[in-house]
Automatic annotation (TrEMBL):
PANTHER family recorded: CNH DOMAIN CONTAINING (PTHR12894), VAM6_VPS39-LIKE PROTEIN (PTHR12894:SF49)
Annotated Gene Ontology cellular component terms: cytoplasm; membrane
Organism: Hucho hucho
Boundaries of every Vacuolar sorting protein 39/Transforming growth factor beta receptor-associated zinc finger domain copy: 73-111
Protein name per UniProt: Vacuolar sorting protein 39/Transforming growth factor beta receptor-associated zinc finger domain-containing protein
Record-level GO BP terms: autophagy; endosomal vesicle fusion
Length: 119
């Protein structure tokens, strides 16, 4: 039991550090409880990571679906189209389109979340 004393304050999350401190003649049965707790901790962590991975994958797919939905919207910029902020023609400038269809110059788009016509 004396070989366990150095292990008491070492977290289970760093078992390799604890194992490195063990004398070479340590018997497995002497550290069985420790090894079981390490394996259980690793198994719990793996299950948690699998659940997290699945949740992130579902969120990724949801965002992809939303992106595809928004990219399907057709936006035609004609020669007469003007920016709703500065009132100048759009020309060949980069532009931003709000979900309500309002089109502005990209540099006139100060807040992506708030349409300038709705302020
Ligand atoms: Zn503008």
């Amino acid at each position: 039991m004396q070989s366990f004393l150095p292990l008491i304050n070492i977290p289970v999350s760093a078992p390799h550090q604890a194992i490195n401190l063990l004398p070479a003649n340590t018997q497995i049965r002497e550290i069985r409880v420790f090894l079981e707790s390490v394996l259980e901790e690793k198994a719990q962590r793996k299950r948690f990571d699998q659940v997290l991975k699945s949740l992130l994958q579902a969120e990724f797919l949801r965002v992809q679906e939303e992106r595809i939905f928004h990219q399907q919207v057709k936006c035609t910029i004609s020669d007469e189209k003007t920016c709703r902020v500065c009132k100048k023609k759009m020309g060949n400038s980069a532009f931003a389109r709000y979900p309500n269809g309002v089109v502005v110059h990209y540099f006139c788009c100060k807040d992506r979340g708030v349409c300038p016509t709705e302020q």
